Amino acid sequence: MNYEKIDDIKAAVYQMLPFGVSFDLIARDLVIGQTPALLLCVNGFVSTDNQEKLLSSLQDIKADSLNGQELAAYLTTKIPFAGIELVSMSNPQHFCTTLLEGPALLCLEGVTSAIAIDVRSYISRSIEEPDSEKISGGAKDGFNESLVTNTSLIRRRIRSRDLVFSLTKIGSHSQTDVVVAYKHSVADQQLLNKIMTDLSHIQADSLTMGAQSLAELLLPKKWWSPLPSFRLTSRPDVACSYLEEGYILLMVDTSPQVIILPCSLFQFTQSPEDYCNAPLVGTYSRWIRFICIPVNLFLLPLFLLLTVYYPKITQELALLSQPLTKTRLIFYTFAAEFLLDLLKHSTEQSDSRRAGTLSIIGGLIIGDMAINMHWVSPEILFYAGFTLLTSLSLPSAEFADALRTYRVILLVLTAAFGLPGFIAAIVITLLSIATTPVYGPYSYLWPLIPFRWKALKSLLMRYPTVKKQPPKRSGDRTRSG
Fold first, then answer.
1. pTM flag (> 0.85)
2. What is the full DSSP assignment across 366-378?
3. S-S: 324 plus which of 11, 165, 188, 328, CB 3.0-4.6 Å?
4. 365 secondary structure, DSSP code
5. Cα-flanking dihedrals φ and ψ of residue 166, to 5°?
């Protein structure tokens, strides 16, 4: 690139980026002192106020006797914005990436480097509490799509010199900012090194779905395992509690969720709601969630097994008000499972104004009509509804959906083969859980495998805050969560 004339610089810049074609790319011709200049920025990344402030400050600078190089050095001390750096125009890729990230670039005639001025002002949501992780007490803020906002929410809670936010970029096209957050003194250095290495080796065009895309790139899912391999949260207080225990966070720009590493099965049974109540109440709530997991998995399949293949036990336990044929029982069970899943997904996909109406339609109209039309029996609808309640009691929707997948497998094999099918489905479920892929050298079933009683106690019981956290493990780093 020829830097002697501003027109040559402008022509080269227009060749690198579609200025004049893409409406959001702005190029402004300026004269600073006696030196021609070119100001480049992306409309929408720079607020009008910042644009006016920058232009006003540049026009007020009196440096008629300075040449291009001297003027560039002078401007870096006079521009009234904190973020100032020099970007070489001889590296077109870095030059374009810097501009598309949001800073304004000031090119001066006869200067080989542009001045990058951080005048970004991204539009973002407010930091309201995430809908999927609402609690009755505690903080009401949540992560949004701005990476700087999210890191500040964590830094506000952990004002430690030990807290590190390491920035990298992923995506050959998107150049998405990804931050690795950790506390240096307690984080597992082996896991940290692995994360850094794997991030540097990721080959992808872009992270279209933010944190979800990054999770799948780090650890591709296996078809036989519906369970989530990563714990995600949108709550800063939850993220900070994991950081304090030595976990590592992955934060992706444009994503309101952060990835917590490493991950274990028991993390999906924990809820910040436990710490908004007295320890005894929190322990009771935690045990209720533990009980909901086997009930969610086995209640409906066990009911189907007894009513279809063991009529005498069904009669003794009074599981049915009237006898039904085997075909009707199987059809009713799957119809109830499908109807309640349909109601659940319809409610999740609807806004708050329609959720109440859908609940009334599903609970009163469809449920009543399904019984009257003999699509389902009241008993089966009751057990299916109870199963749905156990799903809603679990903090993680991903975990609840995985349990539903296992439950459907249990229903299919039980309906087809009876007790042998029920036992086979249980074995398949346990094998799938045990072989769930997990990132890092840690077991998905920790602290059961390997067994760690102290950590297991902290998972089963909600201890008072004054009690010390479970000891940090050396060489066995996954903690309770």
1. no
2. IHHHHHHTTSS-H
3. 328
4. I
5. -95, 125
Q: How far is CA 198 from the centre of its chain?
A: 19
Question: Closest by alpha carbon to 54, among 86, 73, 80?
Answer: 80
> Partners of 230 in the beta sheet?
none
Q: How far apart are CA 459 and CA 3, in angstroms?
A: 64
Cβ proximity of 72 and 122 under 8 Å:
no
- HSE-up (13 A, CA, CB side) for residue 286: 26
Compute the distance between CA of residue 82 and CA of residue 32 in angstroms, rounded to an integer.
Answer: 20
Distance (Å, rounded) from C-alpha 41 to C-alpha 10?
Answer: 13
Residue 85 has pLDDT above 60, yes or no: yes
Local structure of residue 396 (DSSP, 8 states): -
Give the range among 88-97, 99-108, 350-359 with minimum mean pLDDT.
Answer: 350-359
For residue 403, the SS3 value is helix
The token duo for 321 is 């008000």
Q: Could you tell me what percentage of the chain is helix, strand and coil, using 3-state DSSP and rounding each to the nearest 5?
A: 50, 15, 35
| Range in 187-201, 382-396, 459-473 the model is least confident about | 459-473
For residues 190-213, give the mean pLDDT: 91
Nearest CA to 474 among 173, 157, 246? 246
